[in-house]
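Format notes (please read before filing issues)

Several people have asked whether sequences and structure tokens are stored in separate files. They are not. Every record keeps both together, in the order shown below: the sequence lines, then the token lines. Line labels are part of the format and must not be stripped during preprocessing.
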Amino acid sequence: MAEEGAEGASQTKKKMSGKKLVLFIVLPLLLLGGGGAAAYFLLFKEDPKEAAAGHEGEAEAAAEEEQAAEDEAHPPVFIELPKMQANLIMTGKKQPFMVTTMVLEVGSPEEQKLVEELQPRIENEIVTYLRSLRPEDVQGAAGLQRLREELLLRVKNAAKPAKVKDILFKEMLVQQ
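Then the structure lines:
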């Protein structure tokens, strides 16, 4: 009987059959290898369209550098806007308002002439945006920075084709 138990144990320790070997070892290795290769080609391969766009981006960066060098050659020109007053959104019993004086920075005297011609449109954009604010929107340095960025975007669009570089606040009063 002991001999029969030894024979049964040796039969269970048989080598894996070819089908099981393929199913449990070779197939998963192939799948992992194929998946890894596909991931490599999809994630790390440079797309020809993106490569062309990258070269265009380099050209744009070079053009911006040339523009910056040109701008440094000319001293900046400042245009002072008249004092503007706008009612803010009412949050309490009293009507809050803002009084501000701003200065626009442009790159050249030619752009100054264009901006002065478009000044009514620029002032309209500024006052329209100011009227959409609450007193809390312009509190603190972060609020003032957000206001400046928003106004700069709107002024740049209103002043096209002239290029406005910056908006500087000369005076600002928020009355609640």
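For reference, the curators noted about this record: The CA atoms of residues 61 and 67 lie 10 Å apart. The mean pLDDT is 77.
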